[in-house]
Amino acid sequence: MKSSILITGASGFVGKTLIRKLELSKFNSVYLLIPEQDVPDALKNIGKNVVILRGDITDPEVHKVIPENINILLHMAAITGKAGRAEYEKVNFEAFKDIVISGKKKGLEKVIFISTIAVKFSKRKRYFYSFSKEKAEQFLNGSGMEYSILRPTMILGSGSPVFKGFSMFAGLPLIPLFGGGKAIIQPVHLDDVCSTIIQILTKSIFKGDTYDIGGPDKLSIREFLKRISEAKGKRPAFLSIPMWIPVSIISILDRIIYSFLPLTLGQLATFRNDSVAEDNIILKGMTGEFADIDVMIKDSVQGELDDQKFSRAVRECRVFTKYLIGKKSTHYNEKKYVEFLSKTDTSHLNGFDKILSGLAVKSPLFTKICDAYSRFFFQHSLLRKKLGTLFAILETSPVTYRYIDDIGSKNIFTILINLGFRGAWLVFHLFLSILFFLPLQILVGRGGKKQLKGEGRE
Amino acid sequence: MSKITVIGSGPSGVHFALSLLKKGHLVEMIDVGFSGEVPVNPNDSFNELKENLKDPVKYFLGENFEAVVGTDSASVYEFPPHKQYIFKSPEGYDVELHGFEPHLSFARGGLAEAWTGGSYAFNDIDLEDFPFSYSDIEPFYNEISERIGLIGVDDDLARFFPFHKNLLPPLDLDDHSQSLFNTYEKKKDKLNKDLGMYLGRSRIATLSKDHGSRKKCDYSGRCQWGCPSDSLYVPTITLNECLNHKNFKYISGILVKHFDYDNNNRIIAITGFDVAKKTEKVFKVETLALAAGTIGSSRIFLDSLLKKEGKIIKLAGLMDNRQILAPFINLKMIGKQFNPDSYQYHQLAVGIDTDDPKNYVHGQITTLKTGMMQPPFQSMPLDFKTGIYLGRHLHSSFGVVNINLCDTRRDDNYLTLSQNSEGSSRLVMNYKPPEDEDKTIKFSLKKMGKFFGKLGAVIPMFQVQLRPMGASVHYSGTIPMSESGNPLTVSGNCKSNDFGNLYIVDGSTFPFLPSKNLTFTLMANAVRIAEAEF
């Protein structure tokens, strides 16, 4: 008989990839519990048997709406990063406990709990995250459920939150190495974590055991940071710092200004403990197919670049929307604008075109100056194409089209006076732009006369 | 009962076929027949689509934003993404263009699937070079009006196109068109006398009353995006009617390459190319009717002669209406809120009386309602921010008059073939405008400028766009009707003077192209041929 499954954390880092890989049609029903009001694109239209439940897992009302006859709970929801002790406890332990208890009354039998390798760390003073996960593990052990607990090591791949922290370190001119960066890590690729979860579901492994998940390579943190730095095209320089220095300082500050600290004792634990996975029956025969460390770093760096590109595009959309219609862009506007940029070939742009586009995004005022110049002296610029397409997006999107269409009725003289001011304002900006851009354009080169083309456009 | 093979499912083909079927003949229609999607959310208005569709931007602008008009686009508006199938060509349909930029269609229903419905009867002056008069074709205009549903009134424009039977009452005018019309009514005596210009209601193939299963126009504002209620007529409506006849066989996916004929010049078969399987297919023929449009039919004709006799000839006399798009701003409408729930295409037409009535200049006036504003912004001499302010407040006052000029058959304008190294043919199109065209354009624009000025509107002449030849899609004239019996012509009933069992029922046979849209006459003429010859 087919099972029904409730998945928490489906919109998270692991969740989104897992849902894409999971054969959802093999389940009778799939319930995805997510905190967002707007369903992320990755979870839209993914199957007729999929139901999205919205809500905070700590909300008792949410537990009430958990449907009857759910056989399996895959619990991935967790708070990571930097939070207070009580919050870790509430989200990572209490909420999990409540969901299991509530689910049990409605027929829940099996649980997969995604924990952390940090539960095994020996030095974890004030590492509240690992404490909360440990408590959840202990609760599950005594809950009477059939279960499997997974303790992944550091999970890498596109969008990895932990990688962002290391990447920031690796990008510094002088990389601090706490304790010489000697701690051994054994990162695992996001795809391989998902494969392991799928393996458990497919083979129905619920023996009440705990399994570590690590990748094929073990390396020191120093080596890890070196490779990240090199992958980003840099030559790393390290500054070794004895572990007692940050531990002493942070031990004092951690209790006083916890929320302002860039690094907490808990986060420092990665530098103080080896994070390696023990062999187990699940990984037996699977690790040979797991991605190696180079692939993990490559995917993570690429993901980071994609994220940066995405953030830039979203920022650009926001600034340009403000310039064009004086309003905030909607999530849908931004999504479509990012899609347009991804389909636009910018490989043949000349230097001036790039400068113009780069400056225009600084603020709506800059956009105005750059646009005014473009209109009269560089009509075929990328900037004009971007603004033209964004306006087309705005006038065909919900919410923003209404603003563009609705003017009420206005007196012609009011319009003319307003237009006069706007015209004068345009002339002023045009004058400014000529002073600055004309010499620059002559210097960098005109070029860009050919209309820019999107992929599908002739 | 005879079997007639019809090539093409455009307006001529489907009405010719329907008349034959009504008379009990067997009809086999062969067509490439690319087809599109059914209209989405049929009960939604234009703005409701923006609210209710999952991805409205994809619907309106296309998967790759192809409907966004670029800075150097030749068109003010691109066709909507879901209408692009109408202009898709089969692989290997080579053309070489000289002074002519045609739209080709291999879609079910042909180019008229994207028309704006203008349907004007030709009068006796227009038909002077045709071997029949208005009274001969009038019954067929009436018949087509009945079939397709046509709105129109007996007004000032009836002096240019006869007021025939079976016209439906007009639709409600949108606010802007009403404003122009009211001003004209007040000043018309002076405008008629001083400028020789007349304004009236467009004759449009749309419904103001339910017509069979087709519903009357519900003012959803979706005309350009595909009428969801089928009130705006398109040829696939008649094709679907044909499909209900047991004597009708529709074979799609076939691009007809040429016909084969015997030594007595009787066509015995046609050879088609299966577009999907990429194989050739032969169909036996008793009587053949070419209705693939002037360019399509002419190419089949040319390729057939090349195949059989190895000779390349010219089909001279290619015609098309020169179109000039003159935008205007109606000062009375500035600052007013536009109503998106209106009929979107032209509702008014304007005519210029000329010294030689054959040179009549026809214009169709479209006011901006739900059309997108992005395209005009690209060419405004303003930055986007100022342009948008202006555009938003001028939206309800924007309009465009599409001015059409007549065309005559001239030897310089022809279709022919060239052969590439692999032996396959390429269609070559040559077109040169008449020498006095500039004069006619200046004359027309000057008149329009004055006329609109009197109506309280301004035409910014720097924004006037001369559309390239081929843009109007009113192609005609390559195998004209003639009583001479000469080769490369057809009889008064469009029977070929070269092949005994061939009829050409599309615009190829028109000996003159008035400035009025020809589609209505194409349909009426096709019915006339069917009634006269079968």
Short recap of the structure:
The complex is a heterodimer of chains A (458) and B (534). Chain A has helices at 13-21, 60-64, 85-105, 128-141, 161-170, 190-203, 221-231, 244-256, 265-272, 293-325, 331-342, 351-360, 364-377, 382-395, 400-405, 412-444, and strands at residues 4-8, 29-34, 50-54, 72-75, 110-114, 146-152, 155-156, 175-178, 184-185, 188-189, 209-213, 219-220, 238-241.
Give the secondary structure arrangement, pairings included.
The complex is a heterodimer of chains A (458) and B (534).
Chain A: E1 4-8, H1 13-21, E2 29-34, E3 50-54, H2 60-64, E4 72-75, H3 85-105, E5 110-114, H4 128-141, E6 146-152, E7 155-156, H5 161-170, E8 175-178, E9 184-185, E10 188-189, H6 190-203, E11 209-213, E12 219-220, H7 221-231, E13 238-241, H8 244-256, H9 265-272, H10 293-325, H11 331-342, H12 351-360, H13 364-377, H14 382-395, H15 400-405, H16 412-444
Parallel strand pairs in A: 1-2, 1-4, 2-3, 4-5, 5-6, 6-11, 7-10, 8-13
Antiparallel strand pairs in A: 9-12
Helix pairs in contact in A: 1-6, 3-4, 5-7, 10-11, 10-13, 10-14, 11-14, 12-13, 13-16
Chain B: E1 3-7, H1 11-22, E2 26-30, H2 46-52, H3 56-61, E3 95-98, H4 134-148, E4 150-151, E5 167-168, H5 175-195, E6 197-201, H6 235-243, E7 248-251, E8 254-261, E9 267-274, E10 279-284, E11 287-290, H7 293-309, E12 315-316, E13 323-330, E14 348-352, E15 361-367, H8 374-379, H9 384-394, E16 398-404, E17 407-408, E18 414-419, E19 425-430, H10 437-454, E20 457-458, E21 465-466, E22 502-504, E23 512-513, H11 519-533
Parallel strand pairs in B: 1-2, 1-11, 2-7, 3-19, 4-5, 11-22
Antiparallel strand pairs in B: 6-14, 8-9, 9-10, 12-18, 13-16, 13-20, 13-21, 14-15, 15-16, 17-23, 18-19
Helix pairs in contact in B: 1-6, 1-11, 4-11, 5-10
